[in-house]
Queue: 3 jobs
Job 1
Amino acid sequence: MSENPNNWPLWEIFIQSKRGLDHKHCGSLHAADAEMAIENARDVYTRRQEGSSIWVVKSEHIHASRPEDAESFFDPADDKVYRHPTFYTMPEGAKYI
Amino acid sequence: MSNALFQYTLRLADDLLILNHRLSEWCGHGPILEEDIALTNRALDHLGEARNLFTYAGQVEGKNRSEDDLAYLRMERQFTNVKLMEQPNGDYAHTMARSFLFDAYHLPLMQALTKSTDAQLAAIAGKSVKEATYHLRASSEWMIRFGDGTEKSHQRAQAALDNLWTFTGELFENDPVLEEMTKAGIAPDMAAVKAAWSKTVDEVLAEATLKRPADGFMATGGRKGLHSEHMGFILAEMQHVTRAYPGAEW
Amino acid sequence: MTDVKNLEEIFQSKIDAEQKIEPKDWMPDAYRKNLVRQISQHAHSEVVGMLPEGNWITRAPSLRRKAILLAKVQDEAGHGLYLYSAVETMGTSREQTIDDLLSGKAKYSSIFNYPTLTWADIGAIGWLVDGAAIMNQVMLCRTSYGPYARAMVRICKEESFHQRQGYEIMAVLAKGTPEQKEMAQDALNRWWWPSLMMFGPTDANSPHSAQSMKWKIKRQSNDELRQTFIDRTVQQAEVIGLSIPDPDLKWNEETKHYDWGTIDWTEFNNVVAGNGPCNKERLAARNKAHAEGAWVREAAVAYAAKKAKRKAA
């Protein structure tokens, strides 16, 4: 991409909808700097009270795993059923466990 | 007393309605989508505050006039907004400078009004303070970006300030209505509001490397319903549908 | 190396299994191109669509209507923005996309080349144009490309008030003064057929449709969506006492659908070709805004650079 240097860079926006919850990716937008990105995110992504906190990250700073690695990354977790609580048989009558 | 309160509430509303009209002209034509959205938020906030004030003004007057009666069925000479609000948008620096000069006045005014002896005005101001804080922050940042951005933007911002400065005197003008309201503790001490305005303007312009224009001749008349020629066109546009169908519901 | 044929098979099997395609996944060039074209057209439509309605903000006949219209037109800007962002995930910058609009190369929905002549047009646009758009958009919430589907979910959530506010305007006008009712009927007469055209050519004449269905970019055909829209809207018009300007419109007990007349495709093709009532004005307005905003965008970049430099020093 031959980018015009006068274009505002792209930012990824993460919004926390309620205190205590995690920040969730909700989209992107353009802004000249971080402060402007936060303010634009406020105007673009929280017009309907969707937010209580905003994170912005320049899109170029996001690194992602590669789709072709998906099998080797994620499939090995398939057979580790013992990581899940339902794997275990509890003696009948035991409480609070 | 109730007449002065009516007049006072109405002028607060008129300022916001006319500024909303000007900002609305930008909708769909902003310099970039993000800014289009931001400017419309600002316009919506002004409109919301104006509606609360019109509704209250109608109650104070006691003649059963609704927010729409007050917005759509008064003529030029009955509007009492300051002339600053009716000034054409010009370029984006001019629009932002107009909003900045207003925001720097509006925020301390609303902060002070939260302590008004009039409970209803205090409540409306309480809600507005939050919005006004954000408006001033955003318009200050734009003044700084323009002033300290490129040579071109600097020139445009300075030209806008030079052009608009003559309209800032009216924001703090005293008259019998204001005097009565101040005495009653309904309107705040405007000298303090002006001091806050002046301080903000100095700080922001200094950071923006812009020059504060000298106080020369100050335009006047808006509060008495003596407007610029722009006003008639604004109202013609705003009111024509409503007036063409008297008594109709929308 | 996996060969392209194999990659295509994997790709199609993901789609068949209702898995979303994400930006970094391998995808056929034609899929990417098709999507970039469709999403950017959609984005342009949102942004150009601000103009005919934005027109009436300063003239809205009550403060309540003014606030609603401002919020609605602002939403369209937001929707354009979400969609441009979705295009950017495919490696096409917003600048490139917008340049294609400004040069006249890219298309947008022809409906926005019709003028808004009276206040009732604002009602008709909300009711019919947004109503037609939402049929398409609800379907697109399940489209195969992840970022597009996610943008559509957000858009549909926000759009839900758009059609209702338009219908409400029409309902109020229809039970208002005789002049108001006439205004509403006139707007319905002018917007009805262009709204039906929004669903695009008939299935028989839709060149991209079959492939788009296979790739699950589209999930329902133009004709299916159009018919559902007609069935719903006729009933809504009845409720408020307006009549649909189609003498051939008639309930068909057998198909359980309305039979209806024929679209004037010559008009449609003309507007698409640039000869609609407002094509030139719309493009001129977008070009003007973009050109006049250039120094604003530049100033912000220049200031950001200065600030970053000072911070680093």
Job 2
Amino acid sequence: MLTSLFKAAAGAVLTLAATTALAEEITVTDVAGRQVTVDAPVNRLILGEGRQIYLLGALQPETPFEHVVGWREDFSQADPDNYAAYAAKFPEMKQIPTFGGFKDGTFDVEQAAALQPDVVLMNLEAKAATEDAAYDDKLAELGIPIVYVDFREAPLEHTTPSMRLIGRLLGEEERAEAFIDYSQAQMARVAETIETADPQRPRVFIDRAGGYSDDCCMSFGPGNFGKYVELAGGSNIADGIIPNTFGRLNPEQIIAADPQQVVVTGGHWDAYVPGGDWVGVGPGADLAAARTKLEGLTERTAMAGIDAVQTDNFHAIWHQFYNSPYYFVAVQRLAKWFHPELFADLDPEATLRELHERFLPVDYVPGYWVSLKGD
Amino acid sequence: MLTRRTTRLAGLLAGLVLMATTFAASVMLGTTELPPSTFIATLLHYDPSRVAHIIIVKERLPRAVIAVLVGASLAIAGTLMQTLTRNPLASPGILGINAGAMCFVVIAVALLPLHAPADYVWAALLGALVAACLVLMLSRGGGRAGPSSLRVVLAGVAVTAMFVSFSQGLLIIDHQSFESVLYWLAGSVSGRELSLVVPLLPLFGIALLLCMLLVRHANALMLGDDMVTSLGMHAGTIKLLLGLVVILLAGSSVALTGMIGFVGLIVPHMARGLFGFDHRWLLPACALLGACLLLLADVASRFLMPPQDVPVGVMTALIGTPFFIYLARRQQARP
């Protein structure tokens, strides 16, 4: 009995010594431009947002939760379809301790410290709130560094450095570069065609989380989906009205702009707005039900008489493309909606399937978009 | 001050003209500037294929109509509140109406599948009613004279604090679920359809009918509870009936547009300055001036941070805060 206990203890000590010996102190620059010193490869990680698993999953598809010791409780609510897919394949995920958010002041520093993380991965948009609440100072005193990543505020600019950064922290640099190469190649398929053809740009309204709230309408300014629209060969009607990434347009501004294409971002948000008018697209979505809801959104005051409604150029796409490293799929889908003749050979569905097969931990299930055009 | 009957009538007529002008401005000014000819053409021959016509009928007209209804209601409610409490700094908010409406909407959104202004209306109305009844219950004295002014104010402060803190607690715990409520909480006449007004019209109607019936008693109440008794009614009953009018008008307004403050505080002072203290003239004047103020605030909200549309509740607060400070200082300066 004592012998086996001694062996187990010795094994644990040797394992700890081995991992300590393997770990080297590195200094990385995060997307906030901060120099952060960490022991890499990181062994214990807290995710400041649950959806950062999109990044981790692409880098460690076999064991995406191996190093995650705590995470913010948003994945199950914001993206229940993918949460279910991940939970089915990695049931241990449900045992990971959950946190409140840095942004809303419900993060618990004591709980974080108790989990003894090597690093806390934080989203860039929470930086101001993190500093206001002095979470960064408190964690620094405990020897826990914060590293900022971003794939929401400026996904086109920050996803690549964020991917490289996490790749470096996890010792998955090669895998990170492979993902970056793939995403850039997929983006080039749209960018090169648009540059060569220089088509007439349709006026596009992005209805951010349309139906989530009855106050019409939330949208994107020059960043995020607003930028996706421009890259896909459209003209975002909110550009010049909404100064930052996120904002809202009033119904009159939409009617006056008379958009030729409307793209609603949607998801299954029963956790937030039970029975809401949101369009439930995402993996495994009931597209007939989603289409019915999409038709319902054309009845709103802001959509009265607009070109997009009359020509059925009214579409819905998975909202989380705004907050994931898979944005290139959204750009391809938008390009095909805006310029069907120009992108006749482009198959966004095939791209998304290939992305899952090559990089992601879960299998591809269709349902990420729907259109009143029927394609 | 307008003293003679003819000058007062002329004053009301001028108010009506001013309201018509601000109404027209509300319909014609905004992100898209529309000439008067377009407005007239829309009213005579609505063409659903023309963008300008759609903007007027679907957005501008409902917005202006709701601003008139809510502005008038809040102003009348404010006047009656100041009469009831004999406090020139009183407004419908003292009865906890805003806080109650806010709290019940937040609770309803948290517990029920509500996510549209049409759904908020009844929750807000119930909240306004519960809060006001709670204030009136807490402020009742031992006698039959009904609630005392000081007790109403103190009870209102306490009930408001309770409801506001409860709402804020819920908003912090589950802020994501309440994103849909935030714009409503700021107070807005934009994006509301006229169909929202229809179920509330009977309530506005009952309140205005009660107003007309109680106008003499409201005048008597200003001279003291004994004067009301001399008219053959209990002061407590009159206060409760006037309180009911305030609840119906302010509660329905909050339910319709969310939190729009200061209209019920500013307008009664403007109206009294012009028409004196006689409620027969004061209440119609308040209705007209309240409508004008909210219409003007809504028009101004479109140009404060163009091309962004500022909620009208923010605009009335910007106008109202300096006015409130001025009133408070003037009260303080009096011996």
Job 3
Amino acid sequence: MSRREEPLGRVSRLLAPSVFGLLFLVAWEVLARVNQIPVYILPGPLLIAETLWTDGPSLLGSLWVTLQIAFAALIAAVILGLGLAIAMSRSRWIEASLLPYAVILQVTPVVAIAPLIIIWADDVFLSLLICAWIVAFFPIVSNTTLGLNSTDRGLDDLFRLYKATPGQTLRYLQLPTALPYFMAGLRISGGLALIGAVVAEFVAGTGGSETGLAFRILEAGYRLQIPRMFAALVLLSLAGIAIYAVLDRLSHLILRRWHESALPKDR
Amino acid sequence: MTAPLLTLSSVSKTFASGVSALSGIDLRVNAGEFVAILGASGCGKSTLLRLIADLSEPTSGTVQWSGAAHGATGRLGFVFQDATLMPWASAADNVYLPLRLAGLGRAEAAPRIAEALAAVELGDFAEAFPRELSGGMRMRVSIARALVTQPDVLLLDEPFAALDEPTRFKLNEDLLRLWRTRNLTVIFVTHSVFESVFLSQRVIVMSRRPGRVHADLPIDLPYPRDATLRMSAGFGAACHRVSEVLTRATGAEAA
């Protein structure tokens, strides 16, 4: 017997969070109005929506800057992460030599290293890219490495029996085995790349035309334009949700024919 | 009398952990024979099969094939305990694998893949993925994959142990048909007395810890063997005889 009731249907799964969210927003609006909370402390959702409408176009430009950094960092993380994972699966020496440094890179808070990187890299875009990459890199490396080493032992034997070359084993056995692991890493890294980009922008605090969304949030904070701050936050989390949704869908499409994670639950 | 196809001379295997899996195995298999290796779990019969397939090296002793053509694995097919299919590949792609690893192009391999799938009665399931197939069908794909290189020798490691009885009986009969029509030499590892007697010309009974050849019993039942044989008195008597030997082989030191 399951302790929980029947799994929710498709409609209920969409309806439940929508209703909850709506109730939350109504309560927020009512509390803000009844208690007459000043706008510079907590604006109501209606005001935030209005600000999103009026300031949206200018904020969207900044969002695009931040997204460019996040995407470039994610692509770099995929290329270098896959490369490193494959290199480590081919040679115990490479794994032993490099893995500790990948871990160090992962556990050192990016906020702490960001100022250094900003000093070292000439170009602002490049320094932000490096910061976001550091954050997005590790989940891909560690998941893909795990996947490359998780080949079925029977299939290992089969490949040995037919005298597969290391290249063939990588291509026809290790990479397909690692694909679900890689996709799991990619979904985590997609969100982290955005977070990394935002954190780096906070530290860099760039001005001028090429300004990302994080700096808009800081700027609005300094000027006590709290509704604008919230509007930027809303955009940022929508972007994060979109990235996750796209990668999740991609993962499902790639794995749907064979992997357990993508199969319907009822049988 | 010609030289045996396969000769194992005082083969022993001790694992790195110090466990002695096999000790002093002498075994000869002639071309075209159907030999069953029967033993309780842990008697090293799978290890023995891996040594024969050159997937593992004996600690001492030799595994020799007659004729230079064999180079150990040249014409060998191996069917693993689980179907051991690639879940991300269709049945046809799974069967294609040995040819692909040998450098054969897809177009060139296509007729051979189709032939191998047809031989196991899966012609209509070429594009199905392993998860869409039943356990018995997955095992058929596995057999087709082993046959696609047109091997002379087929090694099977408890291939049908996880299947239900009707499916197992059907696959047993199909395997005998493939053995006869393709002039295969078959070495079949099993823990089932009935299966070993039904299939083989010789049953090698193994004792365990360490694994040794306890007895080499000829099965003088006529081929072709089918469902009626399972009901015959001769079959029952042979099973009884093999079963007694197996009990002695495993009981000797287990009790």
